[in-house]
Specification:
This protein is of the alpha+beta class. Helices cover about 20% and strands about 30% of the residues. Strands 2, 4, 5, 7, 8, 9, 10, 11, 12, 13 and 14 form an 11-stranded mixed β-sheet that branches.
């Protein structure tokens, strides 16, 4: 064996699954001890090494090794067939010419990516002066070796990266405080209901725009008018720069086998709500491509009501997010009209956000199609006798206001001036009227920056803010 290869393999043995600049046999950094692999799939594993050499991977759940040759460009990649989920710990050994690295305490289960801006990033311990509702109690009772989280270290760059920082950790009172709160509550409910290990990969950055999470190729093809700078050192808000978070925080993990993703972002795009559905579609499509072409779902949280300086913009962004869930395949939305806080952009009730996302996954991905995971959704309004009768889809067993008056409804006539209106639940429909609008032509519900939702489906899930008009009145 030549001295160069011995040196290479020694570095490989010491790299502990991370990519190091000085190691020439490398494994993508998300592969570490304690990882969770997606069950019943062909899970890729990849890295770099000297061209022409053989990489061999053995796994504890099957006898035969899987081998591949390192390509001329120094990259290697192979897929591992994974078994059904189990609580039994497994091992994966990556070998090259007699030297090996073994990953221990590996679990087979369900894996989800959690991404977005600060509302996804917000940890179970909360932010300064912004606690998570019930967070301390949840942390204390969180010990669970079968719920694990890998948090990608925050970084930004204009070039696609192969390396990132992070480690897989099991939930416990010593670790859960740092987990994404929305992601933790999502994973906790899945783990409880499915009774299998659940792993979440957390990659988010506070204040970030959706553009920062989209690969460069999408801008060249879909958004050529959006300029990507050659240098971000002078950018005041780097998290708004296109591609920089995808490059540093998604690209290094792209391809790791997942069931799907959950997304909590939008506040940074309130002023650009018109293009948000196209941006989301571009992100979904390019992520799918970077994951090998196998389409996976992305379920999103609708941003909660908050007193933005641009009050109408918040409502229009919520509408844009609702449009995504209604028109784009492999999407769904958790409505948060009842969790908003007037003066805090980070709602404390992250349990509701995470669990409502889990309802969607359980119904759509895990064989619980009868689970009523969807609130009624506005379809159209019919006008007669000075009243607006509202027609909805997905009404289930009807509506409720939990015994409180319905509020937040408005009507407008041909003058396009909206006035407060009264509303009532009548024979499974919502009837709205206002003495100030004898001939209504448009209706809106909760179409404000900050407002408390009052209308729910009988399944207890809030109805999204909506409007029947198409009057773009954002200033």
């Amino acid at each position: 064996m030549n001295t160069r290869l011995i040196s290479t393999l020694s570095a490989f043995a010491l790299c502990a699954g991370a990519m190091h600049a000085n190691a020439q046999v490398q494994i993508a950094p998300i592969f570490k001890d304690n990882m969770v692999l997606q069950q019943q799939t062909d899970a890729p594993i990849w890295g770099r090494a000297l061209p022409g050499h053989t990489i061999s991977v053995t796994v504890s759940w099957q006898e035969n090794a899987i081998e591949t040759k390192v390509s001329k460009d120094s990259t290697w990649r192979l897929v591992i067939p994974t078994p059904v989920a189990s609580y039994d710990p497994q091992q994966i050994t990556v070998s090259a010419d007699g030297r090996s690295r073994t990953f221990s305490n590996v679990l087979i289960g369900e894996v989800w990516l959690c991404s977005g801006q600060s509302n996804m990033e917000m940890p179970m311990k909360g932010y300064s002066s912004q606690p998570i509702l019930g967070g301390q109690d949840a942390i204390v009772h969180s010990k669970n070796d079968f719920l694990r989280c890998f948090t990608v270290g925050k970084a930004m760059t204009l070039q696609e990266q192969e390396s990132c920082t992070g480690r897989w950790e099991s939930a416990s009172p010593n670790t859960t405080a740092e987990f994404t709160a929305t992601g933790y509550y999502f994973a906790r409910l899945l783990q409880e209901v499915l009774d299998v290990p659940v792993g979440i990969i957390h990659s988010s950055a506070g204040g970030s725009a959706i553009e920062a999470w989209i690969p460069r190729e999408a801008f060249t093809r879909e958004f050529p008018k959006i300029a990507i700078p050659n240098d971000i050192s002078r950018e005041k808000k780097k998290v708004l720069v296109p591609t920089v978070l995808y490059n540093a925080m998604i690209h290094p993990i792209a391809g790791y086998a997942i069931r799907g993703a959950i997304w909590y972002q939008g506040e940074a795009n309130v002023g650009r709500y018109q293009e948000y559905p196209r941006m989301f579609a571009a992100m979904h499509d390019t992520w799918t491509k970077r994951w090998g072409g196998k389409r996976f779902p992305i379920y999103l949280c609708q941003i909660a009501p908050f007193r933005f300086s641009d009050q109408a913009g918040n409502a229009f962004l919520r509408e844009a997010q609702m449009k995504i869930a209604q028109t784009q395949p492999d999407t769904g939305i958790a409505i948060l009209m009842d969790t908003g806080e007037q003066n805090c952009i980070h709602p404390a009730n992250k349990q509701v956000a995470g669990e409502r996302l889990a309802y969607i996954a359980l119904a759509r991905n895990y064989g619980f199609p009868n689970l009523p995971y969807r609130a009624p959704e506005f379809r159209r309004a019919e006008y007669a006798d000075g009243k607006a009768t509202l027609i909805f889809d997905h009404t289930g067993s009807g509506f409720t206001s939990f015994g409180q008056p319905l509020t937040g409804f408005e009507l407008a006539g041909a003058d396009r001036v909206f006035h407060p209106a009264t509303a009532a639940i009548v024979n499974g429909k919502i009837v709205v009227e206002s003495s100030q609008v004898p001939d209504p032509v448009a209706v809106r519900y909760a179409f404000k920056g900050y407002i408390r939702g009052s209308l729910y489906g009988s399944n207890g899930l809030p109805v999204s803010s909506f409007r029947s008009d198409n009057w773009d009145d954002v200033r």
